[in-house]
Amino acid sequence: MAIEAWFMDESDEDPRLPHHRIPEEIVPPDHLAVLGVLYWHLNPKDYEKDEELQRIRETRGYNYMDLLDLCPEKVVNYEEKLKNFYTEHIHADEEIRYCLEGSGYFDVRDKDDRWIRIWIKAGDLIILPAGIYHRFTLDTNNYTKLMRLFLGEPVWTAYNRPQEDHPARKEYIKSVIEKVGVPLEAH
């Protein structure tokens, strides 16, 4: 099973809607990989014993893990939190999320500053590289259970756009240029 991703329309409608362009413009997984976005599909019902998840954690050094239920019934100030997650930002470290239940959208910017919407569902593990502009929202189901993984102690610091002088952003731009061979302009 491959992850589903597409270029987003420019609509200001509810962010929890799919926001497909007309006609739809599907983004293949290899395009996400060029941007540094990594993906695995695992068995979310067996996450405690999943050998592939353990291998990923050991190989990448993810030694911290917690679980987060995102839904109106379980999150204080739910709408405010969701609005904060949907504010475009970067992190100094990778963002690693494994969807165990439900679904939601990670949006990332490509080298041409277009939004790509990535729909994560149960079983999808996604890694966003440090320095990539992104945001998150739930879809219309308004529920997801996520595993959050970190290297060392968890850091949830978001640096809202613009962050062109942030070391993680500079390193990200450099890595994309090396992969693609085309300059990624500062936005």
TrEMBL record:
Descriptive protein name: Acireductone dioxygenase
Biological or metabolic pathway of the protein: Amino-acid biosynthesis; L-methionine biosynthesis via salvage pathway; L-methionine from S-methyl-5-thio-alpha-D-ribose 1-phosphate: step 5/6
Location in the cell: Cell membrane; Cytoplasm; Nucleus
Encoding gene per record: LOC109005077
Record membrane topology: Peripheral membrane protein
Binding, Ni(2+): 89, 91, 95, 134
Listed GO MF terms: acireductone dioxygenase (Ni2+-requiring) activity; acireductone dioxygenase [iron(II)-requiring] activity; iron ion binding; nickel cation binding
GO biological-process terms attached to the record: L-methionine salvage from methylthioadenosine; methionine metabolic process
Keyword Hydrolase: no
Keyword field: Amino-acid biosynthesis, Cytoplasm, Dioxygenase, Iron, Metal-binding, Methionine biosynthesis, Nickel, Nucleus, Oxidoreductase
Enzyme class at the top of the EC tree: oxidoreductase
One GO cellular component term noted in the UniProt record for this chain: plasma membrane
Function comment: Catalyzes 2 different reactions between oxygen and the acireductone 1,2-dihydroxy-3-keto-5-methylthiopentene (DHK-MTPene) depending upon the metal bound in the active site. Fe-containing acireductone dioxygenase (Fe-ARD) produces formate and 2-keto-4-methylthiobutyrate (KMTB), the alpha-ketoacid precursor of methionine in the methionine recycle pathway. Ni-containing acireductone dioxygenase (Ni-ARD) produces methylthiopropionate, carbon monoxide and formate, and does not lie on the methionine recycle pathway.
Domain of life, source organism: Eukaryota
CDD domains on file: cupin_ARD
CC cofactor: Fe(2+); Ni(2+)
